[in-house]
Amino acid sequence: MVASLAGSLVHVTCKESLRVSISGHSRNMIQPLNVSNDLEQAVQINTNGNLDLGCAVVEKAAIEKALQTIDGEITGQLAVRSKCRDAVGPAFLTQLLIYKVL
């Protein structure tokens, strides 16, 4: 669930800014080649070809970071609960059952 949410959120938020960035960098790299007739077409082809790859890389990084963060939080909370449970002793319900039996 975390992976799906993180992936979808990143895909939606980064796609347009990544498109603008790739387009700008492509234009700056292709301009010195003096391809003035087909400059925009070359930029569009390069942008469309690399946009999905860029989004996939960003999504993967975000998913890995989200899973790492969630796993760390869950592990920490479980450790705290386990420590408290071990310090208190048997659960309240167990003590109640023992009391009623006696």
Automatic annotation (TrEMBL):
Pfam families: DUF3819
Gene Ontology cellular component list: CCR4-NOT core complex; P-body
Domain CCR4-NOT transcription complex subunit, first and last residues per copy: 1-85
InterPro entries per the UniProt record, alphabetical: CNOT1_dom_4, Not1
Molecular-function GO terms, alphabetical: molecular adaptor activity
GO BP annotation list: negative regulation of translation; nuclear-transcribed mRNA catabolic process, deadenylation-dependent decay
Protein name: CCR4-NOT transcription complex subunit 1 domain-containing protein
Organism: Papaver atlanticum
